[in-house]
Amino acid sequence: MSGSGVELTHRAMAMLKAVAAGRAQMSCSCEPDLFVDGFACCDQITAHALAHGGYLRPAVEGGTGRVAAELTEAGRAVLAITVAA
Q1: Burial 37-61 (b: 16+ CB within 10 A, else e)
Q2: Which residue has the higher pLDDT, 1 or 18?
Q3: What does the pLDDT read at residue 19?
Q4: Of 44, 55, 77, 85, which has the highest C-beta tally within 10 A?
Q5: Cβ contacts of 60 within 8 Å, gap of 6 or more
Q6: pTM, full prediction
Q7: Half-sphere exposure of 36 (CA within 13 A, CB side)
Q8: Res. 25: pLDDT tops 60
Q9: What whole-number distance in Å separates Cα of residue 13 and Cα of residue 56?
Q10: The dihedral of CA 37, 39, 42, 47: what is its sign?
Q11: Which range among 3-7, 16-20, 80-84 has the greatest average pLDDT?
Q12: Among candidates 78, 74, 76, 61, which has minimal Cα distance to 26?
């Protein structure tokens, strides 16, 4: 399971929760941008870090443009830990 090197702030956790709720899309690029409820996320630096850190990814492998975002195993594990705490 990946998912390291990213500070999981309240904002980062909210972003992961939005992805888990099916409210997020991301661009398929080397610096993937995150969109929540159709709007660009206010903190793209954290969005990039979550993607590069292995917490979220595009739901469509090899997609182009903007596609649904999904949590990785690491992203689901982080949310499960916070719910259990």
Answers
A1: eeeebebeebbbbbbebbbbbbbee
A2: 18
A3: 98
A4: 55
A5: 28, 67, 68
A6: 0.87
A7: 15
A8: yes
A9: 12
A10: positive
A11: 16-20
A12: 61
- What does the pLDDT average to over 48-65? 91
- The number of beta carbons lying within 10 Å of the beta carbon of residue 27 is 21
Quick check: 56 and 73 in contact, CB under 8 A?
Answer: no
Q: Tokens for 51, please give them.
A: 């993607």
- Rounded-to-10 torsion of CA 49, 53, 57, 61: 120
Q: Express each pLDDT in 35-47 by its tens digit.
A: 999 999 999 999 9
Please spell the DSSP secondary structure of the chain, one letter per residue: ----S----HHHHHHHHHHHTT-EEEE-SSS--EEETTEE-S-HHHHHHHHHTTSEEESSTT--SEEEEEE-HHHHHHHHHHHH-
